[in-house]
Amino acid sequence: MAKNKVRLDICGCECTLSSDDSESYIRSIGDEVHKAINELMQNNERISVTMAAIITALNYCDSYHKATASADNLRAQIKNYLEDSSHARMDAEESHRELERIKKENQTLRARLAAVGDTVEPVESPAVTVSSGTTSQQTGNFSRVESSADADQESFIKFFERKSDEK
Fold first, then answer.
1. Which residues contact 23 (CB under 8 A, 6 or more apart)?
2. 3-state secondary structure of 104
3. What SS3 state is found at 116?
């Protein structure tokens, strides 16, 4: 990019600047400095141009350091937010995988029950009392295994023993 040479007059002091920035930008910066120095000189008639220029430079330097610190703080916050987001995404994916695993396990258990001949009938969910004392109804259907009259605990255990013996 070509360097732009711009001649500025700031409080009677002429200077030529060379910059990659546009001429209009350089002039706007020069005007801002000129106005800041003139404002200081108008507020205190005993202040010299040199002293006003030094105070203006100190003010701009202070503003620069505060803006840089603020930008660094924002960068750190954004970094923390991104890390938190990444952790939350990984937790959500892990929860999704666990949910899928539990669904498959549920299907497997239902298939085993169907193979034994037990029936699975949908049952309405009971009302649940929330800690605040209010009662809420859960939605959805849940299954309950109905026990047959001739099935007792020994036949239940024998069912699993037969399965392990077959393997």
1. 4, 6
2. helix
3. helix
Q: Which long-range contacts (CB under 8 A, 24 or more apart) does 78-86 make?
A: none
167 SS3 class: coil
Residues 6+ away with beta carbon under 8 Å from 15: 7, 8
- What is the per-residue pLDDT across 18-69, written as a single tens digit (0 to 9) for each? 999 999 999 999 999 999 999 999 999 899 999 999 999 999 999 999 999 9
Contact 53, 37 (CB under 8 A): yes
Q: Answer yes or no: are the C-beta atoms of 56 and 36 closer than 8 Å.
A: yes
Task: Determine if the pTM surpasses 0.85.
Answer: no
DSSP code of 131?
A: T
